Every structure is written in structure tokens, then in C-alpha cells.
Backbone:
């Protein structure tokens, strides 16, 4: 019975953790792009994003990570032989990378707070895809364990990464074009009225 409780809350924990990580970097993107706004909107937006980032990180993302890790320890304590499984070692490697990503997000959040972040909105969009790749890899390992069809899975993950990179580039290009069109339209309006 303890195993089921640990597993249930492990799943709840990682859902909360990943939701926080996905949204946190999205807030970073908005925070960086607020620099393009005129004053006083720039300051208002940046202050608001900073509040939202801190609340999300400390109230949702951190607790999600802690619950995930605590419940994983509980799962292993009920089945210690699982530590001998190769798939679990690979999964734990991805989790360690994810924990590093989590803490790197805290570092970016602090840099954004003092206007020292050198990342562009487009670079942050690419960074925002990292947890997606890890989520897919971790879930595939947890579901298939040692029977993971590595050929198909490897190619699927590779294709997903390429698709995400292409999508990010196309989206960024579309946003630039839309902004240029809007700027051109705004520039033409006063000329037509005179």
C-alpha cells in the first residue's frame, strides 16, 4: 500500500514540478521582452514578472521538485532492488540534469531581477524546450524500463528536438514579421491623415 501512495504523490509532484518549469521560463521570455516596451510599461511589466517568477519558483516549482524527490526515495525504499536496474540509472541521470536546469532557472531569475540576464527571448524559447525533452525521456524510461525500443525512441526524440527547434525559429520569424508590419502600419497612419 505504501508503494501506491508514494507512486501517486510522485506523479503529482512531477506534474507540478514540470508545470512550474514550463511556465517559469515563459515568464523569463516575457520579462526579457518587456525591455522592448516604452516607459512606464517597461518598469511595470518587469516588476510584475519578477513577482510572478518568485512566487512560481518558491511556491509551486520548488515544492513540486521536493515532493517528486521525496516520493522517489519512498518508492526506492519499498523496492530497493530497483536500484540495480539499468533503465533507472539513465532515468536518474536525466533527473539530475533536470535538477541542474531547475537551479539554473533560479540563477536566471536572480539575473533578471538585477537586469544582468544576457539571454534573448528567442534563446529563452529554445531553453524552454529542454524540460520537454527530459519529460519525454523520463516517462519513456519509466514506462518501458529495460524494454525501451531504443532505435525508435532515439529517432523519435531526435525528430522531436529538430521539430521543436524548427518551430521556435518559425515562430520567432513570424513574430518579427508581424512586429515589422505593425511598425510600418503605425508609421503610415500619420502620413495618411495629413
Residues:
Amino acid at each position: 500500500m505504501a508503494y501506491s501512495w508514494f507512486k501517486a504523490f510522485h506523479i503529482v509532484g512531477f506534474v507540478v514540478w514540470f508545470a512550474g518549469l514550463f511556465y517559469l521560463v515563459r515568464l523569463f521570455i516575457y520579462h526579457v521582452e518587456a525591455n522592448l516596451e516604452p516607459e512606464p510599461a517597461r518598469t511595470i511589466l518587469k516588476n510584475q514578472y519578477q513577482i510572478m517568477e518568485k512566487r512560481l519558483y518558491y511556491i509551486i516549482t520548488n515544492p513540486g521538485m521536493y515532493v517528486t524527490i521525496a516520493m522517489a526515495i519512498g518508492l526506492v525504499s519499498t523496492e530497493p532492488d530497483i536500484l540495480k536496474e539499468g533503465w533507472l540509472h539513465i532515468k536518474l541521470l536525466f533527473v539530475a540534469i533536470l535538477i541542474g536546469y531547475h537551479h539554473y532557472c533560479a540563477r536566471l531569475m536572480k539575473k533578471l531581477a538585477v537586469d544582468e540576464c544576457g539571454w534573448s527571448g528567442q534563446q529563452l524559447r529554445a531553453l524552454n524546450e529542454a524540460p520537454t525533452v527530459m519529460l519525454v525521456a523520463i516517462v519513456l524510461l519509466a514506462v518501458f524500463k529495460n524494454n525501451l525500443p531504443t532505435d525508435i525512441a532515439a529517432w523519435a526524440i531526435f525528430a522531436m528536438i529538430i521539430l521543436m527547434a524548427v518551430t521556435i525559429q518559425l515562430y520567432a520569424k513570424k513574430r518579427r514579421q508581424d512586429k515589422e508590419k505593425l511598425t510600418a502600419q503605425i508609421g503610415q497612419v500619420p502620413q495618411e491623415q495629413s
